[in-house]
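Structure ticket #2291
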Amino acid sequence: MTADQAWCAVLAAGQGARFGGGKLSADLAGRPLLRWAVDTALAAGLERVLVVLGAEAEDLRALLPSDPRLEVLVNPRHQEGMGTSLAVAARRARESGAEVLAVLLGDQPLVAPATVAAVAQAACTAPSGAAAATAGAQRGHPVAFTRRHFAELAKLEGDQGGRALLGRLGQGVALLPAAQASLVDVDRPADLERVRALLAPAGPGLGLALGLEGPGLWAMAGSGGKTSLLYALAGELHGQGRPVILTTSTRIYPPPVGVAPQTWLLGQETPEIAQLEQRLAPGQPLCLAQGRQADGKLQGLAPAQLAALLTVPGLWVFCEADGAAGRPLKGWASHEPALVGRERGLIVVAGASGLGRPLGQRWVHRPEMFAKASGLGPGQAVTPMALARVLGGADGPLRGLAAGARAMALINQAESAPPALLRELGAALEGQGRWDAVLRASLRLGWWRGCG
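Resolution: structure written out below.
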């Protein structure tokens, strides 16, 4: 299967009677509920996304993104049940030469794009020509069918959808493991509230001050306190009842047992969702790595392993993405930081104890890179303006950050620098227009505030 042969149908024609009306337009973390499923389908990388509307069709159409891959179909028989909506999508896919059709429900906000793509691919290779997501004994959407089933799906009536067909195919249906929460659909207001709690941003504390808007992959780079920040955020989010993973894309020392009681060494394997949920079940932060090196450091995860973590709804993943050899400041080599392109944001840390110090190995990791980015020569004092040029410049840590991801600067060790220098540094960073948040902090003393 290639992406230009695979389609996805988002079924969104129901009236939402159990919700009390207005379900698919209800707000969820700043987006209408329907947009979550549609955005997921588009992000799965398939050729076309069919959105089947019925009740409130025109109002819902106005909520959809502008994307050439998106096509809206209206089911005039939507009141007869979901089967008629799937039939509308199957007929369109059959007429247009699609080879496989994945099916997602419009009230399923927590499905990962990778799950949609994997289910579509699995249907193509399964002898039955069908696949479904599963969590334990529960089977649910997304499901997918190859072209051989389109004629039967196009004749569906009532509210059965593809359930009867999947039942007849029995053991031949390929089952793709998915996170339990991802199979949840929103039927009632209470369901939406549970999903909102899962996706909520960080509560009061350092995470809120940084603007951590919700679960996902948050990377940390820089010097002078990355590991302290990793531990602080893990403890804070764990204290708010959130599932937390600590990891690295490079190398780190194992966290203390008091921070993460369990370290899971994966080797080269991609973590299975069921095992991951089981290890997170005790409610303590979990550390993940590939293995342990001779010097005691943990080897970081590969991009595919990190991507697998992002299929678990509500999971906060904090990832250390470079090293600084214990110095308060650093310059960045061309391969740093080790980002994977899926980050929600990058927190760049710098140690204020390096301000005013001579540029050299004692205070700066990779001083030659720092000199190139800052314009300083060896031995010259590091000024706030020079440090700002390194942090926000073209050779700095933001160069590999994906479009739309948040950029945050945390100037740690603030107790060791004159306030006037910190204010000058903060003003320089804010003046660059590249940062979503700029904080000064003393993680050792447990405080943080804006740089103004």
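Closing remark: The radius of gyration is 25 Å.
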